[in-house]
Amino acid sequence: xxxxxxxxxxxxxxxxxxxxxxxxxxxxxxxxxxxxxxxxxxxxxxxxxxxxxxxxxxxxxxxxxxxxxxxxxxxxxxxxxxxxxxxxxxxxxxxxxxxxxxxxxxxxxxxxxxxxxxxxxxxxxxxxxxxxxxxxxxxxxxxxxxxxxxxxxxxxxxxxxxxxxxxxxxxxxxxxxxxxxxxxxxxxxxxxxxxxxxxxxxxxxxxxxxxxxxxxxxxxxxxxxxxxxxxxxxxxxxxxxxxxxxxxxxxxxxxxxxxxxxxxxxxxxxxxxxxxxxxxxxxxxxxxxxxxxxxxxxxxxxxxxxxxx
Length: 309
Description:
Helices cover 66% and strands 1% of the residues. The protein contains 15 helices and 2 strands. The protein has a two-stranded antiparallel ribbon with strand order 1-2. A hairpin with a 2-residue loop joins strand 1 (141-142) and strand 2 (145-146).
């Protein structure tokens, strides 16, 4: 019944139909966005179908008819439609942030930038309407469906509360990002921005490395990283890089870089991992057993610390 009436409505309107989907699964941001987007995109088809089910001539069960009436009452108030479109605006920014955080090729500094822009957009949405919400906020109908209870007072209150809670959660969840000096220091992990001249490169990243080592000292030490040696290895690495003329990474240069760090710079690799595991093109380190053991310990210990919070 559902697909038959949907097909008829789509053919009559020549518009795209998106079947409603569940909002569950593990990566909830993407799944929730998909579910809400499908509901909003096919809104008039869904409302038309539910309205059809409530008609006396339709041979449906009493239970199905009662459910259709309940869903119609839920979907037609303007507050609900405003909230659904508002969710699309909010979830799109969260999805962008989520993808950045899942990208193993992304520097912490770039992730911090994505977090900052996401929070700035959420703050803006407290007083400004997003592109999806603007489609209905000043109207009394949506996709040709006349809306009921066209009063935005309840929606405004819910909107403020949701954004306040979301911003509070993001701030708490990523509190480690609050120290911008740590974030900026991680940029030394990006080989593509290393200085061209040796004079500039000699002192490049020394203070940044110290900042990183101080901040992550507990985790690094627990994993067996000798932080004092990491600082020495950083200086040796820069000299070797200069000697091999690999200031800008090519395929060969990256292999040389990996060889350098594996041969006698295991402690620096431990620190490097905290900043940036992969190269820009996605090529990962091929870690020695000793270094991999340190990194495994580091990851496990960091996870335990997070669980204890």
